[in-house]
Amino acid sequence: MILIPAIDILGGKCVRLFQGDYNQVTEYADDPVEQARSFQKAGAKRIHLVDLDGAKYGDPINEEIILRVANEIDVPIEIGGGIRSLEQVEKYLSNSVDRAILGTAAIRDPNLLIASAEAYPGRVYVGIDAKDGRVAVQGWTEDSGIDAFEFAKDCEKRGAGGIIFTDIARDGAMVGPNVESLQKMAETTSLNLIASGGISSLDDLRVIRELGLSQIEGIITGKAVYAGAFSVEEGIGVVEG
Fold first, then answer.
1. Are 119 and 91 a contacting pair, CB within 8 Å?
2. Are 177 and 211 spatial neighbours (Cβ–Cβ below 8 Å)?
3. What is residue 167's predicted lDDT score, i.e. its pLDDT?
4. Mean pLDDT over all residues of the chain?
5. pLDDT value, residue 198
6. Where along the chain do its domains lie?
7. pLDDT at 230
8. Does the domain made of 2-239 have the CATH classification 3.20.20.70?
9. Comparing C-alpha atoms, which of 65, 64, 106, 67 is closest to residue 83?
10. Alpha-carbon gap, residue 39 to 227, rounded angstroms
């Protein structure tokens, strides 16, 4: 299990949203590349990037910045947001991005997940962003009405390499992770899982680690690090120590 710091990009800058609300934005840094370098220097073994503009509008709006990050730092990066075609998956994965994350497209175009997973085994994950047990799409602005856990089963059948599971109600809210939902997801699928949403303290990291779920390969943290609740180094010490 590793700690995975997150960089959410909106308008070319590093931000965090509160519960996925584009009207509740906090800006933390001007340059995502410099932010990624600082995470690498702190010892991060992977960095999670989200193109928030891309997620909302369906196009890889911050692609240029994302490719700069991928090519200018040495640790693997994963990217989600605005990936709606096999061509875009190929562009990222052939240009130093380690892992592509499908969200809305995995629901609306199941064949894209199948084709991408076949072309890049193990390198295409699905972001399941859930609220009240249902999957949200279009940058969390729409409720798909699809059960998150049933969808996870479908993703496994279609060849996904793993799942990034986010509880939207807790994301950016610093209220702790939804442990019950995480455990249920681990019981639902045998895919690798990355936990996301609600991390507010080192104790939250300990709670997830102490679940002893071998499927959880990483924990994403965003606002807690930016807000100073703990440093990347401290988080790594708890998760990976």
1. no
2. no
3. 80
4. 91
5. 85
6. 2-239
7. 97
8. yes
9. 106
10. 15
What type of residue sits at position 137? V
Per-residue model confidence as pLDDT tens digits over 194-232: 999 889 999 999 999 999 999 999 999 998 999 999 999
Q: Could you tell me the sign of the dihedral formed by the alpha carbons of 212, 213, 219, 223, in that order?
A: negative
Distance CA 177, CA 205 (A): 9
| Whole-number Å distance between alpha carbons of 17 and 197 | 11
Question: Cα(184)–Cα(62) distance, rounded to whole angstroms?
Answer: 34
Active site residues: 8, 129
Q: What average pLDDT does this structure show over 37-63?
A: 94
Q: Give me the long-range contacts of 181-187 (CB less than 8 A, separation at least 24).
A: 181/130, 181/133, 181/148, 182/208, 182/211, 182/213, 182/216, 183/211, 183/213, 184/149, 185/128, 185/148, 185/149, 185/152, 186/213, 186/215, 186/216
**And the tokens for 65?**
């910045």
For 93, the token pair is 């994965």
